[in-house]
Design a protein that fits this description.
The protein is mostly beta strands. Helix content is about 0%, strand content about 65%.
Length: about 180
């Protein structure tokens, strides 16, 4: 089934709390988040850009785009799963045994503000997905000392292009070739 098209413009001094998941693009269609101020806090499954459904037999083709010029995104209190990777994920095609054809495309355009992952993985381009982080400003922080930052893993294609701003990882950063 074809998905829809959604655009969320967030320019508020308020905090949006999503205790389970905040997904920009889920299963099918196109989703865009334009964040200029305010805060988004995600838990359990994490903050995810281009997310497959929970049923491995589902087909999915989704594009998720986050344009961030200010504000903050925080990923907190996520949990580990044997069949999926949780955390701050851009291009999240990691549900085990996804039905073909499935494809997930996630992009984070970071020019201002702060993105902080304090729980589980930071991943870019995982599984049946492409993921891009294009950072021209702002901060991206992987504060988790027990989980890695992954760029291009399990067959996914990940790109992290940093031309300005700050990127910090408290643990290993693996670029390409991760299979387990």
């Amino acid at each position: 089934a074809a998905g829809g098209r959604a655009i969320l413009n967030w320019n508020s001094s308020q905090t949006l709390n999503a205790p389970n998941t905040f997904a920009v693009g889920y299963v099918n269609g196109y989703a865009e988040l334009n964040l200029t101020r305010g805060q988004i806090v995600a838990g359990s499954y994490g903050f995810r850009v281009a997310q497959p459904g929970g049923n491995p037999t589902d087909h999915g083709c989704v594009t998720g785009v986050v344009n961030m010029t200010g504000g903050s995104i925080r990923n907190v209190n996520c949990w580990l799963s044997a069949s999926a990777v949780h955390g701050l994920i851009v291009g999240a095609g990691t549900v085990a045994n996804l039905a073909a054809p499935s494809y997930f495309r996630g992009t984070l355009n970071l020019s201002g503000g702060a993105v902080t992952n304090s729980s589980c993985y930071t991943g870019v381009g995982l599984g049946l997905s492409d993921g891009d982080v294009l950072q021209t400003g702002g901060e991206l922080r992987h504060e988790v000392s027990t989980h890695q930052m992954l760029v291009g893993a399990w067959g996914g294609e990940g790109r992290y292009i940093l031309s300005n701003g700050v990127a910090v990882a408290a643990r290993h950063v693996f670029v390409g070739g991760i299979t387990t």
